[in-house]
Design brief:
By secondary structure, this protein is α/β, with parallel strands linked by helices. Strands 17, 18, 19, 20, 21, 22, 23, 24, 25 and 29 form a ten-stranded mixed sheet that branches. Strands 1, 2, 3, 4, 5, 13, 14, 15 and 16 form a nine-stranded mixed sheet that branches. A five-stranded parallel sheet has the order 6-7-8-9-10. Helix 4 packs parallel to helix 5 and helix 8 crosses helix 10 (288-297). The protein starts with a helix and ends with a strand.
Length: 589
């Protein structure tokens, strides 16, 4: 409930009856409603809320803040993101994102929900409570991520989903997979969300026009999977607003903005998101501020780009009355920067208080390591795990035709290929010259001990093995390598660490990155976790691979919701038909 005393104080300050708490002066204000810059502007703030813009009276204030002639804009809104993809705790993520101007996130904790269920979601919300950022939950629609096709740490029925959305005050149903719209459980979730006035986010990769129309007809109201100008135009034609993504492994901003500028497309339905960002990328390039800079470089008017990152997003989610502009009645969330053509954030204010300055958060809030016991000890390996259980075996012939996942080109989109490999002692042997390696997904929640096995091309590993408990989106353990013994040792190292990633070569543990929070997030600061990730990624070269996308491919190649082919603990899956594919196509003598 709004406090009437605070409301009265704000009204009186706006009229000049009483002084403001704070008066920000000497700024060039970005007016996102008028799409203009107001010179020598000022903002009066009471109780963390803007009471007046450029008051006409000689305003008094308890504190006057001189902005030094810098530009002032509303803090930026990230329309769709997954904190867990950074492998950072929420507090460490905010250490990186807030200094770059992020004042609001719409977070979909899909991976955490799949790993730790309701307990994980509650812990996640608790971790965000005291951060200098507005956080809204896009409730995970896919728990498990591939229902019936993988084993997850949790299961949310349509009824569970609706109940938890209300309990956790979710703002939307998170990225519904448009490839699964006619599944009964998905239809029920869509109906529940619509009946209870929840927004529905979309996940629509590679869809043709008719499929996009079907997605819009199903109630999907946005999408972040556009990679080309044509895909952007098709979504707008279908009435689906666009979140332009600039993620670490899917940098889509430049081609999409270039199309908007070239064709002079309207931008009211254009917003920005990061989706998935590495900690190094956050520290080096930023978050939504990076989208804005890229958009400006590609020819978009700077104020239009800032409007897309603020007012457009606030309107889309129905929170325009709270954030998204530096206008009366909105929270005093603002960023200051010197160069409109290349906004580099100097200061960030959250509810009128200084939150970050010169790239550093003012008051970092590290979470106590042992506060959330429910997030630890989530890695439980099958008791019978062995080298043979990781190998694709056959008792026929000395050669075998196999189906493999191809991840060439660095895209999330996978493709199906076929190759002939050698069989020795019943095991199909890796072929490092052809860059075709065995890959396995191991159920790690102690439920059934499933192991899905197949082959993959594109990793470049020539010796040793790499394992990780961060395989999106179900977060079972994925392992691949040139040697089955090293694969087994790498999996065991991950389990002993409580989660994370390991490199083993010749039986020796060469590198280990610990991610003990649900097996997917670290407990250190963003600088500590960035350094840990850097050391691990540098160690990947010890496998003989010069592929900088190695870990990303190991992780994302396993998601059956991304075309064309994926692997779970239950087996190799066609992402379009959701039918299982045998990894051995035929046997040759």
């Amino acid at each position: 409930m709004i406090c009437t005393d605070s409301l009265k104080k704000c009204i009186q300050a706006a009229k000049g009856v009483i002084p403001f708490d704070k008066l920000f002066v000497n700024m060039k204000l970005i007016d996102v409603y008028g799409e203009r810059v107001i010179e020598n502007a000022s903002l009066g703030v009471c109780g963390g809320v803007i009471a007046s813009v450029c008051p006409s009276f000689d305003a008094g204030a308890e504190e006057i803040i001189d902005c030094g002639g810098m530009y002032a804009a509303p803090s930026f809104i990230d329309c769709h993101m997954h904190i867990e993809s950074s492998h950072l705790s929420p507090s460490a993520y905010c250490e990186g994102a807030v200094p770059h101007g992020t004042g609001c996130i719409f977070a979909d904790p899909m991976q955490l929900a799949n790993a730790s269920g309701e307990d994980g979601l509650r812990a996640f919300c608790s971790m965000l409570e005291n951060q200098p950022v507005h956080s809204f939950i896009q409730f995970p629609s896919r728990v498990p991520a591939a229902e019936g096709m993988e084993t997850s740490g949790a299961y949310f029925s349509p009824e569970d989903t609706l109940l938890l959305m209300k309990k956790l005050s979710a703002v939307s149903l998170g990225e519904v997979n448009a490839l699964e719209l006619e599944k009964q459980s998905v239809l029920e979730k869509l109906a529940f969300a619509a009946e209870n006035a929840f927004h529905i986010n979309g996940h629509c990769p590679g869809l043709d026009h008719d499929s996009l129309c079907a997605a819009a007809a199903a109630g999907i109201r946005d999408d972040h999977e556009s990679e080309t100008g044509e895909e952007l135009s098709q979504r707008l034609l279908s009435g689906i607003p666009i979140f332009i993504r600039e993620g670490t492994i899917e940098p889509n901003c430049a081609p999409l903005v270039s199309e908007i500028v070239k064709k002079k497309l309207p931008t009211d339905s254009i917003m920005f998101c990061t989706d998935d960002k590495s900690p190094y990328d956050i520290l080096k390039n930023g978050c939504i501020d990076n989208n804005i800079r890229i958009a400006i470089k590609c020819g978009m008017n700077p104020v239009t780009a800032i409007k897309a990152a603020t007012l457009n997003a606030a309107r889309h989610f129905g929170i325009e009355h709270k954030i998204g502009s530096c206008t009366p009645g909105r929270y005093a969330d603002l960023v200051l920067f010197e160069d409109l053509e290349y906004p580099k954030i100097a200061k960030v204010y959250f509810k009128g208080e200084l939150a970050a300055e010169n790239g550093r958060i003012v008051r970092p809030t590290q979470e106590p390591v042992n506060k959330y016991a429910e997030l630890y000890k989530t890695v439980k390996l099958p008791e019978s795990l062995s080298e043979d259980s990781l190998a694709v075996c056959t008792d026929k012939g000395s050669r075998a035709d196999v189906v493999y996942i191809s991840m060439a080109g660095g895209s999330l989109i996978s493709h199906k290929g076929e190759e002939t490999l050698t069989v020795s002692d019943g095991r199909i042997i890796p072929d490092t010259k052809k860059d075709i390696l065995p890959i396995a997904v191991i159920e790690r929640f102690g439920k059934n001990g499933n192991i899905g096995k197949a082959f993959i091309k594109g990793l470049g590993i020539k010796k040793g093995a790499v394992a990780s408990s961060t395989a999106q989106e179900g977060n079972n353990i994925v392992v691949s390598g040139a040697d089955y013994s090293d694969m087994l040792a790498a999996v065991r190292a991950v389990a002993e660490a409580g989660g994370g990633s390991a490199i083993v070569c010749g039986g020796r543990l060469l590198a280990l990155r610990r991610l003990p929070l649900a097996g997917i997030m670290g407990t250190g600061s963003i600088e500590e976790e960035t350094e840990s990730a850097r050391r691990f990624e540098e160690s990947l070269k010890l496998t003989g691979s010069d592929n900088p996308m190695l870990m990303a491919m190991l992780t994302v190649s396993l998601c059956p919701s991304i075309p064309e082919i994926g692997l779970t603990d239950k087996g190799l899956i066609d992402a379009y038909s959701h039918e299982y594919i045998q990894p051995i196509k035929d046997n040759l003598t």
